[in-house]
Amino acid sequence: MQSSRDAVGGGATTLAFLTREQAVYDHLRQAITNGQWGPHEPLVAMRIATDLGVSRITIANALKRLAAEGFVRLVPHKEAVVAPITAPDVTDIYHARAALEAEAACVAAQHADFSWLTELRALNTQLADVQPSRDPTLVRAADKAFHAHLRAAAGLPGLAAMVANLVDRCEYYRARMLDVREIVLPDARHHEPLLDALAERDAEQVRAIVHEHVVGGMRAILAALEHGGHR
Question: What is the H or E stretch that residue 43 is in?
Answer without folding.
Answer: strand 42-43
